[in-house]
Amino acid sequence: MNEQSRKLEAVRNRCRTSSRVISVLQIVTIVGIVLALIGVIVCITQRGMIDEHVGKAVEAGSVTVENLRIGGSNINFLINYDRAFAAGNYALPIAMSCAVAAILCAIVTCALGLFKDIFKELSRETTPFSDRILGKLKYAFIMLTAALLVFVGVGPAVIGALLFWCIYSILEYGRALQNEVDEIL
Amino acid sequence: MGKIVLRLDRVMADRKMSLNELSERVGVSNVNLSKLKTGKVSAIRFSTLVAICEALNCQPGDILEYSPEE
Lengths: 185, 70
Prior knowledge:
The complex is a heterodimer of chains A (185) and B (70). With 185 residues, chain A is an all-alpha fold.
């Protein structure tokens, strides 16, 4: 085995490990989805009890309304937390926060799935510069940029999008070079 | 613009060598040798050219031919 082959084998081994790590992360995010959905169901079915208990906790000062938000102020367009909390309505905003968390976890799970597929293919294929890998990467980047835009903010989403676009362009250039190399015998 | 044409089939016929035999000697698959014969590749490595010349006992000029644009 020459030096180049050894380097390629090392890259493939790293990709195999990354694929396994992503599998574990996916389990965590799937558990997150399930817990968030349970939260939604509990908040809706036990609405009266939750409003009463959380209201008491807020009055006692042990819980602040800021603790009940998920995604900062960026999801305020979904529900007006301040108005709901002022009216003593806690269960529905919390249910909404749980639903948003479930959607976020679902997006991350899908993106992780695409990354896992990419690492799996990299551990098998001789080149990462293929149409299949680029296609999957494009969808993963779009999903993550959309998640950044909705849950973090415009600034980080623009930076993330630029970073993803840079990586995608490098791989596209690599694919063009790969096509040229494939035509040389 | 003219092009380079590979005259592999002519030299192979002169040497009475089959595609399979040449493939084994050169270490290039049958499929890739067929691509070379039919001119479906855009370039050839010096190492491949050396292996073909050794197997067919010929010079690069015997298998490469410049064809001007008609």
